[in-house]
Design brief:
Layout (H helix, E strand, L loop, with lengths): L4 E3 L2 E3 L6 E5 L6 E5 L3 H18 L4 H17 L1 H12 L3 H25 L5 E5 L2 E5 L5 H14 L3 E5 L6 H13 L6 E4 L4 H9 L5 E5 L2 H13 L7 E5 L4 E5 L5 H12 L9 E7 L3 H14 L18 H16 L3 E4 L13 E4 L16 E7 L5 H5 L4 E2 L1 E5 L6 H6 L4 E4 L13 E2 L2 E3 L11 E5 L4
Parallel strand pairs: 6-7, 6-9, 7-8, 9-10, 11-12, 11-17, 12-15, 14-15, 17-18
Antiparallel strand pairs: 1-2, 3-4, 5-21, 10-20, 13-14, 16-19
Helix pairs in contact: 1-7, 2-4, 2-6, 3-4, 4-5
């Protein structure tokens, strides 16, 4: 078995010795991954409770020391982390290093600063207990630092269900935890495609809070399951779901900036939570942008491995490939013009990226999340028209706006999203994004001393 669970401080096969097969997107290399059952989860929960009873009383200094050890290890081994996850996630190496691993290091630095600042005055805080995290494959080390570590630094123990699409994340972090001597059971890492395991992970009363990153399809099922058990217990819930992100180009076009903006669409092929989906441009720049997009796609070649700098990478899931042809049909039925890549495909994991032009603002493609490189190019006469078209989406993760400093403030403030990134792609902003609409659900407080990872009590004087 290539990838094992990490339980009670060491790597372990599942109790029933079951496994599943995962193929890496670039080369179809087969990985055999531990397939945990409910028995493995129960064992992990027992170990997590034991670790929590020790760790909950740890000092701020102990927790800062933990951040330093993790940061030192990650800095030393960042190239191995970036390379391993780039192979699993179908991304180019340089992007994986910058947007995943180096981003994680910056987030660690901000977490250390939050710990040094301490608990706010007039508040008493206690950790909630065992926290369960369902981790997406999207830049998973970054998400691990952003979603899992705050729970630990708040004094909790954590059980993480690692994405089946990036199982190497468990191996990398298990090795890290073993190397730094992490308290046994404080962080448990499990893989599973077993339905009984997944249901128990959501409903077990020993898991006091649940944080989920994933698709709307999966997260909506989790919300339903949690709702059905509310007569027995309430559970803290934080959901990070889909996105339909806007990019707005409001400056005079130049090649460097145009390449940067297009990369926000193409790097990740529309599958990342941070990917742009709709590009809004000013009417006066329409011809320049149309010509640039057409030239870019027509000269684009598929990436063959992680060392290839092309942003045209394979799709992660077979169902995304299967659904992609219907998106082109839908765009044409909406009377949109198509600007498409035209190179030969190296395997059935690839699809041809395309932009639509002149698409109806009522099209479902303007509203729905699309897990693939089907993008929309929209022209507006004035910048203030962008929010009314952008906000028709069901999602509100983030937007990236290229504009002169101090201009278009009304447009920026009216965008109905969790984060607006100015003059850079949102993936290069390193604060947690608390999305709105169907991009999030539940208690979205991401701070170490906030009321998701902690039970917060206000202290009032007489």
């Amino acid at each position: 078995m290539d990838i094992l669970n990490f339980i009670d401080g060491d790597f372990a096969k599942p109790v029933q010795n079951a496994s599943f097969i995962q193929k890496r997107p670039f080369n179809d290399n087969v990985i055999q991954v531990a397939n945990s059952s409910a028995l493995d989860l129960v064992k992990a929960i027992q170990g997590s409770h034991t670790a929590f009873n020790t760790w909950k009383d740890s000092s701020i200094e102990d927790r800062i020391d933990l951040v330093d050890k993790i940061a030192d290890y990650l800095e030393t081994h960042k190239n191995r982390f970036a390379e391993s996850e780039a192979w699993d996630q179908g991304l180019n190496l340089q992007f994986s290093l910058q947007a995943n691993i180096e981003a994680a290091l910056k987030i660690l630095s901000s977490q250390k600063a939050e710990l040094q600042k301490g608990i706010p005055d007039n508040y008493s805080v206690l950790p909630v207990g065992v926290v369960g995290v369902v981790l997406s494959w999207n830049l998973s080390t970054r998400l691990f630092v952003e979603k899992v570590l705050p729970a630990v630094l708040a004094g909790n123990s954590v059980i993480v269900k690692i994405s089946s699409y990036s199982p190497v994340t468990a191996k990398l972090w298990g090795e890290l935890f073993r190397a730094i001597g992490l308290t046994s059971g404080l962080v448990q890492l499990l893989h599973s495609q077993d339905a009984a395991f997944k249901k128990l992970f959501i409903t077990h009363p020993g898991i006091k809070a649940l944080l989920v990153t994933g698709s709307l399809e999966n997260t909506s099922e989790i919300i339903k399951t949690v709702a059905q058990m509310t007569t027995q217990q309430f559970k803290k819930l934080q959901i990070h779901s889909g996105s339909k992100n806007t990019a707005a180009a409001l400056t005079e076009p130049n090649e460097s900036e145009m390449n940067e903006i297009l990369n926000s669409f193409l790097l990740g092929q529309g599958q990342l939570a941070w990917n742009s989906s709709r590009l809004f441009i000013l009417e006066k720049h329409e011809q320049q942008w149309s010509d640039f997009v057409a030239h870019k796609l027509q000269t684009l070649k598929p990436s063959i491995d992680i060392h290839d700098s092309s942003p045209w990478t394979p799709l992660m899931k077979t169902k995304y490939v299967d659904q992609f042809a219907s998106l082109m049909v839908q765009a044409k039925s909406d009377q949109a013009k198509i600007i498409s890549a035209d190179a030969n495909l190296p395997s059935n994991k690839y699809v041809k990226p395309f932009f639509t032009k002149d698409m109806s603002n009522c099209s479902v493609l303007q509203q729905d999340q699309v897990m693939g490189p089907a993008f929309i190019l929209s022209t507006v006469k004035y910048a203030f028209d962008i929010p009314k078209y952008s906000n028709v989406s069901y999602y509100g993760h983030s937007a990236s706006v290229w504009t002169e400093v101090g201009k278009n403030q009304k447009t920026i403030h009216q965008l109905d999203v969790g984060l607006v990134s100015l003059n850079k792609w949102s993936v290069f902003q390193y604060s947690a994004i608390e999305g709105v609409k169907q991009s999030s659900f539940g208690n979205m407080n991401s701070h170490i001393f906030g009321d998701f990872y902690k039970n917060v009590k206000k202290l009032a004087g007489s």
